Amino acid sequence: MLTPPPVRTGTVLGVKLEGSNVAAKACLAIALMTALVASIVVLGASAAPSNTSDGNDTKGPLDIKRVEKLGNEKPRWTIVNFRDWRVERMWDHGYVIVNLDTFGSRRYDYYVVVRSKGTQLSATLWRDRARKDDVRIGFVESWKRNGRSVAVRIALRRLNIPKQRAFYYWQARTLYTGRDCTTVCIDVAPNKGGVQEPNPLFSPSPIPTTPVPTITPTITPSITSTPTPTPTG
To answer: Is the pLDDT of residue 199 over 80?
Structure first.
């Protein structure tokens, strides 16, 4: 049996691993980290609509049916599932993630993790660093819209999006472990690549202009002849 490695300070990306069934929670947290590391952006993807659909292809209550994105500078993502679920049931069992690529690299640079705190949802924004520990930026707004969907809103000004970048990409993921998923069930939308969105903070670099030199005319001086004096006798 594979024993999960020890978890430093009892948390993984803000997910507490204390209480009953610690091993299962640790495995879910490891799967969460693995899913985030495996989030690679497919560059060169064509522009896609803000809404994306996914098939009924994953066990558990967090099987993604579609993802709706609305707004520009403070966009809202709504993840709609095929089945109803309750916030209480997701405690230590289910997570909803929105990945964001803002740098144009081959990995997502930011992500939001939505999880249950028992009776309410909590969402945190993280900076995904390639060679260092991830950094938590802070909380973001999240809420349950109905029995089978959850929404999260992110202010893009909190992200480091270069103003010279005309686009950014996003992708949604869910992870669940429970009676229907003895191993972690992971769903992704879209399944390949990310959805391209225009950067509302886009500000193209000004094109330098070469000043046109001013031509100053050169005046040629006139040669004035000096008369020869007449000799006097």
So the answer is: yes
